[in-house]
Design goal:
Blueprint: H1 2-23, E1 40-44, H2 62-73, E2 78-83, H3 103-109, H4 112-118, E3 122-123, E4 134-137, H5 151-162, E5 167-170, E6 193-194, H6 199-204, H7 215-221, E7 225-226, E8 236-239, E9 242-245, H8 251-262
Parallel strand pairs: 1-2, 1-4, 2-3, 4-5, 5-9, 6-7
Antiparallel strand pairs: 8-9
Helix pairs in contact: 2-3, 2-8
């Protein structure tokens, strides 16, 4: 009799356990306002702070970091920050002026947690593409000098592309495609629809004779199919794994295209 009771008790326990297990929600399901599975995106920022020989400072443009950062973070994307030198990347002082404030920059200015993370960017040399699902480059004039030719950055971009992972850049950041190549040795942008800070926009900020090269000219010389809208208008374009934006106003559009790629 005791054996019968014992067996019956075990059966009831197993059925109860099964029902409990079946009712547990999947850990991969997130509300429909977020992507279904956590993704990891690497943000790479410039470490260069000198605006040519002008004696002025440059770096990354806050809006081009903040707008995509929050657009992705708010959708459940995990973001890691890196730069060639590691630590605090330089902020272009002009991007802190009142005329260039947006909801995203205002949020950043009040976000001590993100500011702290930004001050501790990883060194590019220790970063492995295998740990991420996509890579994104905010602009500012700084990338024209360092990220356009940084060997670790080039290595990462080519590795992301070779492993079928999106590569996104906005404004001056498409400078990263100056030396990047596909496995067969062709320029990464050859035959691809791309955009970036236009020649007329560079002329409008009176830095055509200061920058080491013009983003628009370089992309065209590398075989990219360059498109643009009127100066300062939002414009972003996707072609395969490449996502590019024309100017600061295009930052969130780039993030939206990248988010779609990650789903």
């Amino acid at each position: 009799m005791k054996n019968i009771v014992l067996v019956f008790t075990i059966v009831i326990a197993l059925i109860s356990c099964k029902n409990t297990t079946e009712k547990q929600p999947s850990t991969e399901k997130i509300s429909n306002t977020k992507i279904e599975k956590m993704k990891n995106v690497l943000f790479v920022l410039t470490s260069h702070e000198d605006l040519g020989n002008t004696g002025e400072k440059t770096g990354f443009w806050i809006e081009e970091f903040a707008a995509p950062y929050y657009a992705l973070k708010d959708k459940g994307v995990n973001i890691t920050l890196a730069s060639p030198k590691g630590g605090q990347p330089p902020i272009d002082p002009k991007s802190e002026l009142p005329d260039f404030q947006t909801p995203a920059t205002i949020r950043f200015n009040e976000d001590k947690e993100t500011q702290d993370l930004l001050s501790k960017t990883l060194k590019l040399e220790i970063v492995d593409q295998a740990d991420y699902d996509a890579i994104f480059y905010p602009g500012g004039h700084g990338p024209l000098w360092d990220l356009s030719e940084d060997k670790n950055s080039i290595r990462l971009i080519e590795s992301f592309y070779a492993h079928n992972k999106p590569v996104a850049a906005v404004c001056h950041a498409p400078a990263i495609f100056k030396y990047t190549k596909t496995a067969d040795g062709a320029s990464l942008v050859k035959g691809k629809k791309v955009t970036g800070f236009s020649n007329t926009e560079e002329d409008a900020v009176q830095l055509t004779q200061v920058v080491p090269f013009l983003v628009e000219d370089m992309l065209k010389e590398n075989g990219g199919i360059f498109s643009k809208k009127e100066d300062w208008a939002a414009h972003a374009i996707e072609d395969g794994l490449l996502i590019t934006g024309q100017n600061p106003a295009s930052s969130e559009l780039v993030a939206e295209l990248l988010l779609k790629k990650l789903k």
